[in-house]
Every structure is written in structure tokens, then in C-alpha cells.
UNC93-like protein MFSD11 (Probosciger aterrimus), 449 residues
Amino acid sequence: MSPESKKLFNIIILGVSFMFIFTAFQTCGNIAQTVITNLNSTDFHGSGYTSMSIVYGVFSASNLISPSVVAIVEPQLSMVVSGVFYSLYIAVFIQPTTWAFYTASVFIGIAAAVLWTAQGNCLTVNSDENTIGRNSGVFWALLQSSLFFGNLYIYFAWQGKTHISESDRRTVFIALTVISLVGTVLFFLIRKQEGTKAPGEENSTNEIPGDSSSAQNKMTRALAAFKKSVKLSFTKEIMLLSVTTAYTGLELTFFSGVYGTCIGAVNRFGSEAKSLIGLSGIFIGVGEILGGGLFGLLSKKNRFGRNPVVMFGIVVHFLAFYLIFFNMPNDAPIAPMEGTDDIAYMIPSKNVAIFCSFLLGLGDSCFNTQLLSILGFLYSEDSAPAFAIFKFVQSICAAVAYFYSNYFLLQWQLLIMVVVGFFGTITFFLVEWKAAAALAARGSDYSSI
């Protein structure tokens, strides 16, 4: 197998592994609040929104140390261990208790930081400036296929159900736990690239052969990775991209947790309300996959760079927010178990609700594929710290959004995303123009990014 084929193989395995893990996790996140509100046990007092707020809060803080962890443990093993913790979190729902639920939320937050930092490093070392766009698209399309499979099962399994029984819950979460473990095992198939450096590892002609795995060497690499993370955090490009990243955290919370809850709470959808949560997730996945294919796999034919893709993404999202504002009741995110009989500015339409799911996924793929691409392009030598900062900002904003989702009506959640999305698009444009100028100065073709 040629070096280029080996790299593409690694990207595909990386994407398939994430597809399995996030088939389980994203389906879990999509139905968690609905499942919790249907629990009969009076001993359980957890909240799906609060749990995800803890997950993303710990996730954000853990990104400060995740490059050091990946430097010590190595990217492949880091992803394997992190995958195990994802599986444990999902398994908690088989027989949920409040203390186990929130404890698992803390641990998966740490695991997520390590997993995504290692993923960023793996994506970058298996790409160059000519393939980073393609590889980002391949990875993103495979990852977001996870939204299709898990939610397809939910759609058919919960068809016509107005209450989720204990048997329904256990069946779903046992299956999701097994799926997550399959994805974890697949990480072992990733082949290490010769001549690549772990995060924080510097070129050195004085390094003693065979001593690269010593404890002292690993601690040196860990400290170097942490210093790089702090230094990169204050660069102009990272600070500008942080606004865009903040927006992806807010809308991630909305489409992965809040919107499905809104759909399931609308009583006017009748007995289909709960199964529509699964259908919504499917169409979010269709939008994500389509976006990953169009703007990642076909990036070689894009002669205008990343900005038009991001512009298209924000227009699609604004359209989705407008339709959701008119279609969904304002109290849907915080409705009780009985649901809501309110209406917005039109009679709630199932078709409009599902179309908005597609638009949310399509717009999200535009932002994330281009952020992955520009980070891999700008920070090819410092991939782990750069991706750690990206996930730090994204996750802390997701945590804040999950927290306020317990209290804010739908209209205020939509307004926050519109404002942050507008400014995030502008800041991305500024960084992309600078990247294009740097590429032109090197005499490279702008379409190659």
C-alpha cells in the first residue's frame, strides 16, 4: 500500500470509528431528555440538559490538558480509552441512577477532550495542504452518518408511542452501548505514520535512540504541548476563529439536544411526536452528509476558497431559524412531560419541522468542514493544540447553551444563535482572506485548500 493510500485508509477508519461511537452518543443525546421525562422511578432526579451542560463544561476545561495527555499516551491509545468512557456513559441509561448519571457526565467530558484532540492530530498527520479539504469532508461525512442509523431505529421503534417504557429504554441503550464499543475497537486498525511527531514533540538531532518513550521525554512533550496551547490561544487567527467556533457550539446544542426535545413536546403532532424525534435526527444526518460530500469531497473544484461555503451555511441556518420561530411553540424546549398545546405563528407542521432538521444539519456541516480544513491548513505543525483550543471554545459554549436551555424560551435561544452566527461568519472571512494571501505569496493555487 502506497503512503498516500495508507493515509486515506487511516482517514476512513477514523471516520468509521467515530461513526459507530457517535451513532450511539448522538442518538443518546437526542433522546436523553425525552427518556428522562418518561422515567417512572421517583429516585431519579436527573436532567438531560444539565447532564450535557456538565459534559461540555468539563469537556471545555479538559481541553487545556488534553494535548499533554495525547502526547503522553499517543493518539491511537487515547482514542481507544476515550471510546470506552463514551460506552460507559451510554450504559448508564440502561438502569439510570442520579449519581451515576452525573458522574459519568464528568468522565465523558474528560474523555471527549482527549478523543477530539487525538482526532485532530490523526486527521492532520494523514493530510497535507492538498488533501486536508478532501480528508475533512471524508471524515465529516462518515462521522455524521451516525445521525442516520441511530435515529432511523428510534423512528421505527418508537412509532406511535406516547410513553417510553422501561423495556423500550433498556433495549435501545443496550444496543447503543454495543455499537459504541465496536467503534472503539476499530481504532486499533489505524496505522501509525512513519516520521510523524506526537503532539508537543520537537525535531531533535540529539535525542537518544530508543529513548523516545521514556517518562522524562513524555513529560517534556506534554509540557511543550501545553505551552503551545497557551501560546496559540492568544494569536490573532485563533481569537478570530473562536467566534466562529463559539457559534458551532451553540448550534450544536440546539440541533443535537434542544430541537428534538421541542418536536417531541408538540402535542399537535399527535402520536407521531416521539418517533418524529428520530426522523428529525435522520434528516439532520442527511444534511450533514450532503454538506460533507459537497464541500469536503468536492473541495478540489472550489476555486473560491472556504468563504462561500461558510456564507452558504449561515444563510441556510438563518432560514432554518426563521421557519422554526414560526412553526414551533415558544415553550417547547422547557415543556413538561405532558407536552405543550401552544402554537407559534402557524399551526405546527411536521413537514416544516423535518425540513428545518435538514437545514440545521446542512448548515452545521458547512461550518465544521471549513473549520477543520482551515485549522489543519494553518496549524499543520501544531495540530493537537490548535484542535484542543477549537474544542475548548466549542464545548464551553455548548455547555452554556445546554444550561440556559433549561430556562430560555425558544425565541431567545434562536436570537442568541443569530447574533453569534453573524459575527462568527465575519471573523471567519477575515482569517480566510489572510490564509489566501499567505498561500498566494507561496505561489500555490488557492483552489488547493
The domain at 234-442 is CATH 1.20.1250.20 (Growth Hormone; Chain: A;). The chain has two domains: 1-191, 234-442. The CA atoms of residues 13 and 69 lie 22 Å apart. The longest helix spans residues 3-37.
